[in-house]
C-alpha cells in the first residue's frame, strides 16, 4: 500500500509539473522540510534550505514570466522538456524501488509522461489563447495554471488517492482532446 501511495504522490506532483515546473518541486520541498512527506534515499537534498531558496527563486521567475504575453509562449517551449525532467525527478524521489532501472524507468514513464502530456495540453491552450485574443487572454490562462499547479500539488501531498483519481481523469480528457485535434 505504501508503494501505491508513493506512486499517487509522484503522479500528482508530476501532473502539477505540467502546469508549472518549479511550483510542485517547491511544494514538495516545503512538505519534506516539515516532515509531511519523506523523499527517498539520495533525494534528501529536496528537504534542504538551499533547495528551498533555489526553488522559490525559480518559482517566482517562472510565474512572473507567464504573465508577459508571448514570453509565456517562449517559456512553454522550454517548459516542455523541463516538465518531463521535473516530473521524472519528483516521481523517482518518492517511489521506493530497489532496482535502479525499474526505479528510474517508472519515474520516467509515469512522472515524465504525465508531466509531458499535461504540459502539451497547457501549451496548446496558451497557443489557442494567443491566436484568439492576441495574447490578452493569456494572463487568465496563466492564473488558471498557477491555481491548478498549486491545487494538484496540495492534493498530491495531503490526499494522494484523490490526486491520483483526478490526474487519471485529467489525463484521459487531455489525451482525448489531443487525439481529436490530431484527427481534425
TrEMBL record:
Specify whether Chaperone is a keyword of the entry.
no
Query: Keywords on this record?
Result: Membrane, Transmembrane, Transmembrane helix
Span of domain DUF4126: 7-175
The keyword Transmembrane helix is annotated on this UniProt entry: yes
Q: Name one Pfam family in it.
A: DUF4126
Ranges annotated as spanning the membrane: 48-68, 75-97, 147-175
The record's listing under InterPro entries reads: DUF4126 (IPR025196)
- Coiled-coil regions, chain positions: none
The protein, known as: DUF4126 domain-containing protein
Amino acid at each position: 500500500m505504501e508503494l501505491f501511495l508513493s506512486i499517487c504522490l509522484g503522479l500528482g506532483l508530476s501532473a502539477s509539473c505540467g502546469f508549472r515546473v518549479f511550483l510542485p518541486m517547491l511544494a514538495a520541498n516545503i512538505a519534506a522540510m516539515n516532515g509531511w512527506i519523506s523523499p527517498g534515499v539520495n533525494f534528501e537534498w529536496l528537504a534542504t534550505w538551499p533547495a528551498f531558496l533555489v526553488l522559490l527563486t525559480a518559482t517566482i521567475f517562472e510565474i512572473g514570466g507567464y504573465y508577459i504575453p508571448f514570453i509565456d509562449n517562449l517559456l512553454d517551449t522550454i517548459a516542455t522538456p523541463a516538465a518531463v525532467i521535473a516530473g521524472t525527478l519528483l516521481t523517482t524521489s518518492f517511489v521506493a524501488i530497489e532496482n535502479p532501472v525499474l526505479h528510474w524507468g517508472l519515474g520516467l514513464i509515469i512522472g515524465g509522461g504525465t508531466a509531458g502530456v499535461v504540459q502539451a495540453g497547457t501549451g496548446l491552450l496558451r497557443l489557442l489563447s494567443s491566436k484568439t485574443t492576441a495574447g490578452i487572454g493569456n494572463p487568465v490562462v496563466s492564473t488558471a495554471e498557477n491555481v491548478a499547479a498549486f491545487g494538484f500539488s496540495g492534493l498530491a501531498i495531503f490526499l494522494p488517492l484523490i490526486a491520483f483519481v483526478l490526474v487519471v481523469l485529467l489525463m484521459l480528457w487531455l489525451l482525448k482532446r489531443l487525439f481529436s485535434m490530431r484527427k481534425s
